[in-house]
Each structure stands twice: as C-alpha cells, then as structure tokens.
Amino acid sequence: MPTAAERPLEPSPRLVRRKRRDRTEWWTETVGSLPPVYGERWREVDGRAYRSFDPSRSKLAAGIARGWRGPVPAAGERWLYLGAASGTTASHVADLVGPSGAVYAVERSLRPFARLLAVTERWPNLLPVLGDARDPASYADLVRPCDGVYADVAQPGQVEIVRENAALLLRDRGAAVVVALKTSSMGRTRTAAGHLERAEDELAAFVDLAPSVRLDPFHRAHYLVGGTERPAEPPAPGPGTPRRRRATPRAPPPR
Ligand SMILES: C[S@@+](CC[C@H](N)C(=O)[O-])C[C@H]1O[C@@H](n2cnc3c(N)ncnc32)[C@H](O)[C@@H]1O
Description:
alpha/beta, Rossmann fold, 2 domains, four-stranded antiparallel β-sheet, 12 strands, 21% helix, disordered C terminus
C-alpha cells in the first residue's frame, strides 16, 4: 500500500512507486470509483484511493517500470488518448491528470467502446469519443487543446496518425507525444529494431525525443517512444504560406 513517505515520480505526484521485497509496484491515485476496470487492486490510504498500475496490462505502466524518462501525464493536464479500447490504460491516464485534468479517449470499435462508456460513467474526467484516429477533424469540435497525446492504435502508420492529431489538437508549444509501438503489427519487412528506428526518425521530424524503452518482458517487441513536440517552424517568407491548423479553445463538452 503506498504511503506518504514514498517518493512520487516527477512530474506526476499522482503516480506512486512502492518497493516491495524484490519488486517495485506502481499505483495511481484514482479519481474513479469501484468496481475495478480490469481486475486491478484498490487500496485506501489516508482517505485517498489508489489502483495498482500493472505493467503486464498497460504499455504506459510497462514503460515507466522499464525506466521511461519521457513525458508522463501530470495533474491538471488535458490528454488526447488514441486507441482507448475498454479503458485499461486510459483510466490510469485519467487518474494521473486528476480531477482538474481531462482525457479525451478515442476508440473506433463499438465493442470496446461500449465497455469504455461504462468506465467513463465512474471516471468524471474521462471523456469518450467514438471516432477514427485517422480523421481527427471529425472529432476536433469535441476536444479542447491538449497538453499531450498518447497513442496505442497498434497499426502501421501510427506516427502519421499522431502527427495529424498533434497538428490539430495539441497546444502550440512543448506538448507531450507518447506512442506505444507494437512492432508485430507494423509489417514483416523490418525487424522490431528496424520498425523502432523508422518510427523514431518519423517522430524526430516534430518531436525532441526522449530515449525509447523496450517493453519486454511485459509486452514482447513493443516500445514506448516519444518526447516533447517542437514549436511549429515559422512560415517561410512569401504570400499564402499555409499555417498549421490548431483547435481553438472551446467550452468542455457536456457530460
Ligand atoms: C492495443 S489496443 C489499445 C489498448 C489500450 N490502449 C490500453 O492500453 O488499455 C488498440 C485499440 O486501438 C483501436 N484502434 C485501432 N485503430 C484505430 C483508429 N484508427 N482509431 C481509433 N481507434 C483505433 C482498436 O480498436 C483497439 O481497441
């Protein structure tokens, strides 16, 4: 059970590390309510509820357990989550941003989306979006400018999907970009390391990269990659230079 004496991982005081004999556990202080989302353990300490953040179930948790030094969702932030499935990791991201933050959870398949909806009933800051991440304009009206994007759509072309979402829906400067790469879903023409290298090259065009981490043994041949988005280049001199489109601030969607 986490205690106040345990050191939180900066910059997210809502993420607690607990040393237990020969292993380290991770917990998120939750904003949700029972029942558990995926069978995770719940504990209450000093009136605060925590959920175990299981690296074998969540690639974000696996990345943190493997020493990820890139961005982690922090209290008060808004995150765009692409490929939310039934909310396993998305609910932890909502825990990390806390009650003053929000997570827009995009999922395109009806079956996991139905389970995600049931989770969002118990997580007031987790906002479900039924949509295709390849078409961010189709849900841009529902999303206020975000501080970070987390993508786990497990398909080829994921970095391009992230780039388009980032251009439209992230705030202008220094936003976070975190991508879970499942190399076995990215084609057979490259090795896992080759897929990683290509994804890093593509991301490096608009992101200052943190060191990528491999997620074995929790998730075979998966990586967590990403970093901090660079500000858009100033437009080249000359008339009619197209600018990156950004979502304009809007009122939060009704719940
Ligand atoms: C590996 S699962 C995500 C697991 C989830 N991120 C977690 O950790 O709990 C990938 C999900 O992405 C969804 N997905 C795939 N392509 C998508 C797209 N273009 N737009 C939205 N969701 C997509 C799939 O339906 C699936 O639910």
